[in-house]
Amino acid sequence: MTAMALPTGDVHDFDFLDGDWVVQNRYLRTRLNADHIWEEFPGRARLERRLGGLVNVDEIEFPTRGFTGMTTRLFDVQDRRWSIYWTDTRRAVLAPAVRGGFDGDRGLFFGEDVEGGRAVHVRFIWERRPGGRAHWEQAFSLDGASWETNWVMEFSRPR
């Protein structure tokens, strides 16, 4: 997706994620090889805004997986787009950014990465859901046309 075609957004797009969350994860065991065995595991996340909302950071713990992840989101005021970066304690290397924004309650973000030695297109979908819930999913594509969703997170507030 070209920079001109990337969705744009607003500095307040991720305000709904402020605070603490319980996260139910579904993770595709292997990717881009027609093996569709999903693994489920819990997580706990916390998001905080910085620099007047231009930056937000969340940390998510996966207690049954033995690692912690962190997302940093930066809002480019001039382009009106978010850049989203991921890292975790397994390697502590910043993954390439996905970029985009929200249209209403749904955000689309696109980027490029490598999976299993192959170049892949990456798509994130973020959704604000009723009842103080949120949804995130990641998909990969080899051709930019057909997408395989490989990680889904369902966010709810702790009781």
Short description:
By secondary structure, the protein is mainly β. The protein contains no helices and 10 strands.
- Straight-line N-to-C gap: 40 Å
CATH H level: which superfamily?
Calycin beta-barrel core domain
Radius of gyration: 15 Å
**CATH architecture assignment name:** Beta Barrel
What percentage of the residues does DSSP assign to strands (E)? over 45%
Number of helices: 0
CATH C-level: Mainly Beta
What are the secondary-structure elements, in order, as H or E? EEEEEEEEEE
Proportion of residues in helical segments: under 10%
Structural features, described:
The chain has 159 residues and is mainly β. Helix content is 0%, strand content 60%. It has a ten-stranded antiparallel barrel with strand order 1-2-3-4-5-6-7-8-9-10. The chain is globular.
Describe the secondary structure blueprint for this structure:
Blueprint: E1 19-28, E2 38-50, E3 55-62, E4 67-76, E5 81-88, E6 98-103, E7 106-115, E8 118-129, E9 133-141, E10 148-156
Antiparallel strand pairs: 1-2, 1-10, 2-3, 3-4, 4-5, 5-6, 6-7, 7-8, 8-9, 9-10
